[in-house]
Every structure is written in C-alpha cells, then in structure tokens.
Specification:
Structural class: mainly alpha
Radius of gyration: 19 Å
Number of strands: 0
Order of helices and strands: HHHH
Helix content: over 70%
Keywords: ATP-binding, Cell membrane, Kinase, Lipid biosynthesis, Lipid metabolism, Magnesium, Membrane, Metal-binding, Nucleotide-binding, Phospholipid biosynthesis, Phospholipid metabolism, Transferase, Transmembrane, Transmembrane helix
Subcellular location: Cell membrane
Pfam families: DAGK_prokar
CATH architecture of the largest domain: Orthogonal Bundle
Number of domains: 2
Number of helices: 4
Largest sheet: none
Membrane topology: Multi-pass membrane protein
CATH topology of the largest domain: Helix Hairpins
Shape: globular
CATH class of the largest domain: Mainly Alpha
Family: Belongs to the bacterial diacylglycerol kinase family.
C-alpha cells in the first residue's frame, strides 16, 4: 500500500513504492506466521554454525540458497492460505483445504531437501572436529 493512500488500486509508479509494498508484505508474514519466525531463528542458528565451522564459499552458497528457499516457500504458503480464506470467506472448502495442504507440502519438501543439504555440509565438518 502507498503510505499516503491506503486504498491504492493502480500499479506502483516508482521502484521505491514497490519496495515499500514488498517490505510491508514481508513484515506481515513475519509477524503473522509463527513458522516464518521459526525458520528465521533456525536460519540464524545455521548461519552462526556455518561461521564457526568456516564453511567454504561453495558451502555458503548452498546454505544461503536453502535459507532463501525456505523463506520463499513459507511466504508462498502464506499467500495460498490467505487467498483461500479470501475466496472462501473463511468457510470450510474441500478444495481450499487441498490447496492449503499442497502449499504446506511445498514447504515440507523445501525443508526436507534443505535439511539433507545441511547434513551433507555440517556432518562431515562436525565429525572432523570430534575425531581430531
């Protein structure tokens, strides 16, 4: 929303206007979605461990990609949930339930593969610390 006009209906006119809308959306997701806060906390923990374990540049790229993937999928899951609630006016819909379940499934897939990548990166480094 434009800062001056809370009921904007036309396209954004400037990059800064678009940026403000995007920023407001991210803040809303962070404040309204417990899982986004959990993902953020886990991302901070992963970043701290990555820094402590002196990851290579390539390993950092994978970690950053996984963190980004989790934030994107959680945000899209929230979008799907809100759209279903808007269309169904928050009444039960079997199709709406399927849509929400599929969006949550996308987050689960991203978390699963991010976890595998995290294990592939961190387990050997932790093992080497324990062995030596």
């Amino acid at each position: 929303m434009a800062l001056k006009d809370k009921k904007q209906t036309e396209k954004n006119h400037t990059f800064s206007q678009s940026f403000v809308h995007a920023y407001n959306g991210l803040i809303r997701v962070f404040h309204e979605e417990r899982n986004m806060r959990i993902h953020s906390a886990l991302a901070i923990i992963v970043i701290v461990f990555a820094w402590i374990l002196h990851l290579t540049n390539e390993e950092w790229y994978w970690i950053i990609a996984c963190i980004g993937l989790m934030f994107v999928t959680e945000t899209l899951n929230t979008v799907a949930e809100n759209l279903v609630d808007l269309v169904t006016e928050k009444t039960y819909s079997e199709l709406g339930k399927h849509i929400k379940d599929m969006a949550a499934g996308a987050v689960l897939i991203a978390a699963f593969f991010s976890g595998i990548i995290g294990l592939c990166i961190f387990v050997p480094k932790i093992w080497m610390l324990l062995v030596h």
